[in-house]
Amino acid sequence: MNWDDxxxxxxxxxxxxLLAASRRLGINHATLGRRMTNLEEALGSRLLIRRTxxxxxxxxxxxLFRAGExxxxxMLEAQATSGRIDxxxxxxxxxxxxxxxxxxxxxxxxxxLTRRHPQLKLQLVPVPRSFSLSQxxxxxxxxxxxxxxxxxxxxKLVDYSLGLYASRAYVExxxxxxxxxxxxxxxRTGYVEDLIFSPSxxxxxxxxxxxxxxxxxxxAIGQTEAVRxxxxxxxxxxxxxxxxxxxxxxxxxxxxxxxxxxxxxxxxRDLMRLRVVVDFLHELVQEERQIFM
Length: 293
Prior knowledge:
Layout: H1 3-15, H2 18-25, H3 29-43, E1 48-51, E2 54-57, H4 59-82, E3 91-97, H5 99-106, H6 111-116, E4 120-126, E5 140-143, E6 152-167, H7 168-174, E7 189-190, E8 215-216, H8 220-228, E9 234-237, H9 238-241, E10 247-250, E11 256-265, H10 272-287
Parallel strand pairs: 3-4, 3-5, 7-8
Antiparallel strand pairs: 1-2, 5-11, 6-9, 6-10, 6-11
Helix pairs in contact: 1-2, 1-3, 1-4
């Protein structure tokens, strides 16, 4: 197998389009298409489903993509070790993260890493859900529990805390509860219970048995905005709630503790770009650890 053809194939797979890959590689679009056809013929397998709006990997293409990334990682590692080149961090890394952490913490800071490595492309997917690493929904997942199944590499990223918050306008209009029992007399915001994808997100059960929120929203950022608007008292991440001077911490003795973990598939362990991103995430939270607790 010709490594140069595999290199071109990796560029197409990462770009998702022949045209975009050809521009990035600096070669003619038609030439790249012929090289992909030659590679498929040499392997006797169809690797790409070509459509007018892009390319999709076939199951055989997925296998070659994983093998090609391992080949790329080993080659770059060998070249760097021998001193022949400075290792270039390039390619795409997709990070799946809870929406609160992804939007409020990562989004304003990840640009630092792309400035360090101009050929690195980051994709941040901050949504309130879990991610499948085996199905390539994300290369790195920020999880709120340490996974116990699958061939995964996990490390604790940071501990964080949550607490009760209300807007100043709400407190001025309705007062503040002086104990947990008094919360029952107030409007409350909460998660949409049947959309909670992890038991760790059932924060309300740690405070009172029947939270019975009048406004439920399945997003940490959405809950923050609801509380800011005066919709009621809610459980917010402290590192988010502290950003807004119009929010007041209610019953400060009530503290919920959780942790974030970095998780990626074992097969990606040797990809330098992935290791660089994981190391950067840990560097970020280490520098600002005080905001999380």
